UniProtKB/TrEMBL annotation:
Keyword Nucleus: yes
Pfam (any one): Fungal_trans
Transmembrane regions: none
Name used for this protein in its record: Xylanolytic transcriptional activator regulatory domain-containing protein
Record has Nucleus as a keyword: yes
Top-level taxon: Eukaryota
GO molecular function, one term: DNA-binding transcription factor activity
Species assigned in the record: Gymnopus androsaceus JB14
Length: 640
């Protein structure tokens, strides 16, 4: 930018504490004003160019089938505000989040709160760097060809046991007998792909371990597993050979691990690459050969990656990597792993009358056609079809699509195997946990489709609120049995946001709703996130998000009452319970005052564990008034 006047020097002089002397010469003054005006115009031009970034487009993207015929100026102005707040909390302005991403739900919460009568001119933003920033231990080198460093033998055995007890029932990508034999033979020291697969497994298992050797190097419990995952390269360095099963297994594990860190966006990219690698290996096609351990594991890996690709794409409002037209591979066999390696005709045959533990996995896969319908209807770029022309009413089309998908979801729920039907008193902990997960998946997508059809509809909001309460009850039942899974994080956070929207709507319309009762479930959701944030970054990010929304809703009194009641209830339960999760030894919902050190989102200070930061102290209350933070700093985004 050419100028005869140094604009930066002039600006500093004008804004200095020393009074600026206005030139007496009219010609000189006119030149200064001209230079300033030119500088402003240049800045406006540059700003206009940057407004065409991917993020900007995603914020303003409209459904082409829904023309805006009135109030366009006001709508655009209102839409700009959440976009700007979102940009402030994005790691990169160039990341795209579609209209169905969970950002939209938070935006709905902000829009709803405008009508509560609460002044939002000055509100806080809680964004703790420990949970939002990319930490030093997460920055990986581009080249990782150094010798692999494995856990000491006793820790390796412990992590393998934790994996097969806690995680493999939900991501059964290993055959235990075969895997343990391979490790015992030292294959992980000779086959790098298998070695990295073992390390990726150790990284995920570390989150269920209290052994400090999993995180001591970085000084914080939340870094558990990074010492192992840092050595894993999920992307092939060469495509000369067809991908191996080990390569797909480690890619899958790596993506699942990263999904709950401060870099969740990497998982969607990796899962998409996984689809391509599976296709390269031919794992997407049906095979006529007899079943084998390898062929069954290939099928499991394919279906898990396909399911994750769909769910991640729906959550982020992005395209998926494949469709049902591209594959014909069958579901894995419903045979427990211990019957895979039996001799002769007994192999791969489930004994008559013995329930199969893999029923859970198969029923999850049966959700895929429904997720494909959700993605096609609610995420994909809208097209003008013959049906659109016959049904020009957009609201009607949305309601019809919602009803069709809801019917399919109900049929899927009704078809859950008998042993996995919901029974809060079930004696088998694994079956109980699998049942809870299936039902939480159902309620998550029940909320999703009705949120898409419009939370302004009383019927849709009522359905979402009912589903949210059901999620809370399932979460509580899990916690009482000593179970707390990171897989439920987004479901619980969404439930809390839905309940807050319901409170706002009730206040605005003067409906007779027990705010304290509703807030009690919000606090339970936050308590669940608080317990898990000691081990998973995503939980801390979501807790910050919900806490911000609680404050902007002007519900601090109700929050404080509910927090007291929940803490007292927890202490009573803890004193009488037989099983209490190791990660839940303290129950604290922290005050805004304690979090003030984290509100500066530009801070580069590094922080240790939540307990080290005063997040495990006694106060649970929010102050009644905080007036030092501008509303424009507010809007935490969801884990994508």
């Amino acid at each position: 930018m050419k100028s005869s006047i140094n604009i930066q020097t002039l600006t500093a002089s004008i804004l200095s504490s020393v009074p600026y002397t206005i030139p007496g010469d009219e010609t000189e003054l006119r030149q200064i004003l001209k230079e300033l005006a030119s500088y402003i115009r240049e800045l406006e031009k540059e700003l206009a160019e940057t407004s065409h970034s991917n993020f900007g487009r995603s914020c303003h993207q409209e459904d082409s089938s829904e023309p805006n015929t009135s109030g366009k100026g006001n709508v655009d102005k209102q839409a700009d505000e959440p976009c700007e707040r979102l940009k402030q909390l994005q790691h990169s302005n160039n990341r795209y989040y579609g209209l169905t991403s969970n950002i939209k739900l938070v935006k709905s919460a902000i829009d709803a709160s405008r009508d509560t009568g609460f002044s939002q001119e000055m509100v806080p933003t809680v964004k703790r760097p420990l949970f939002w920033d990319v930490q030093p231990w997460q920055i990986l080198s581009e080249s990782r060809s150094e010798p692999l460093i494995f856990p000491p033998q006793d820790l390796l055995v412990n992590l393998m046991n934790l994996w097969f007890e806690k995680t493999n029932p939900f991501y059964p990508i290993f055959h235990r007998v075969t895997f343990e034999k391979s490790v015992a033979s030292g294959l992980h020291h000779h086959d790098r792909h298998f070695g990295e697969t073992v390390l990726a497994m150790c990284a995920l298992a570390s989150r269920n371990s209290d052994d400090p050797r999993n995180f001591d190097m970085y000084g914080t419990r939340i870094a558990a597993g990074f010492i192992w995952i840092r050595q894993v390269n999920p992307v092939p360095t060469s495509f000369l050979e067809a991908p191996s099963l080990y390569q797909l297994q480690k890619l899958l594990l790596y993506a699942v691990f990263m999904q709950t860190t401060s870099m969740p966006y990497s998982s969607w990219v990796l899962i998409g690459l996984g689809i391509r690698l599976l296709q390269d290996a031919g794992a997407h096609r049906k095979r006529s050969s007899p079943p084998s351990v390898s062929s069954e594991l290939w099928k499991r890996v394919f279906w898990i990656i396909h399911f994750l690709d769909l769910s991640y794409s729906i959550d982020m409002g992005r395209p998926r990597a494949t469709t049902s037209d591209d594959y014909d591979v069958e579901f894995p066999l419903e045979v427990d792993d211990e019957y895979w390696a039996l001799p002769g005709e007994l192999a791969f045959k489930q004994p008559p009358g013995k329930p199969c533990r893999s029923n859970y996995l198969i029923h999850v896969f049966k959700l895929v056609p429904i997720l494909e319908s959700i993605h096609c209807t609610m995420v994909s770029v809208p097209r003008t079809t013959s049906r659109c022309k016959l049904e020009p009413d957009v609201s009607y089309r949305k309601q019809r699509a919602t009803n069709e998908i809801q019917k399919a979801l109900n049929e899927w729920l009704d078809a859950i195997p008998e042993k996995l039907k919901w029974d809060p008193q079930h004696s088998d902990v694994l079956v109980f946990n699998q049942s809870a997960m299936l039902h939480m998946v159902y309620y998550f997508y029940r909320i999703f489709i009705h949120q898409w059809s419009g939370l302004t509809s009383p019927d849709s909001l009522e359905i979402c609120v009912g589903a949210a309460h059901s999620c809370v009850h399932l979460m509580e039942a899990n916690f009482k049995r000593g179970l707390a899974s990171p897989q439920t994080l987004l479901t619980i956070a969404n439930a809390a946001i839905i309940l807050l929207i319901n409170i706002w709507r009730s206040k605005r319309l003067g409906l007779n709703v027990d705010i304290n009762l509703e807030m009690a479930d919000v606090v339970k959701c936050m308590g669940h996130l608080k317990r898990l944030e000691q081990r998973v970054q995503a939980a801390g990010r979501l807790w910050d998000t919900v806490l911000n929304v609680v404050y902007i809703s002007d519900l601090t009194d109700a929050y404080n009452l509910a927090a007291d009641a929940e803490a007292n209830s927890y202490q009573t339960t803890q004193s009488t319970a037989d099983i209490v999760p190791a990660s839940s030894s303290t129950f604290n919902l922290v005050s805004f005052g304690q979090l003030s050190q984290f509100w500066d989102t530009t801070s580069t200070q590094e922080y240790g564990s939540p307990a080290e930061n005063g997040l495990g102290l006694n106060s649970r209350h929010l102050p009644l008034q905080i007036d030092i933070w501008n509303q424009r700093c507010f809007l935490s985004i969801y884990l994508q």
